[in-house]
Amino acid sequence: MDFTFALAKLRTIAFDRKAAQKSLGDDLAEAFLSLVADMRNAMYLDELVDAPEAVRSDPVILEYKLGLDCILEVQPIGVQAVSMTNWATVHRVKLVRIAQNGTQIV
User: What span, in angstroms and rounded, lies between the C-alpha atoms of 71 and 83?
Assistant: First the structure.
């Protein structure tokens, strides 16, 4: 999959393990980096082993669980409009934010 990032800090922690550990702590950093690695190796969202915990709409946002009360929000991006029915076939994603207990931490 191809990535874009809503925040420069997300780009930094996606490619720098030490920065991820500093921002998230060891456990969340490992969960985040593992999910990013899985996404890099997948062609489409549907190929990921774990489905998102929740899917919101307008725009479509996928919530992937990283740890207790912590999620990564991912926005599928397509050439055509992404909907609640076609998001799984998308091969470009924007990492939007990491939230814990509803509060943005990255």
Answer: 21
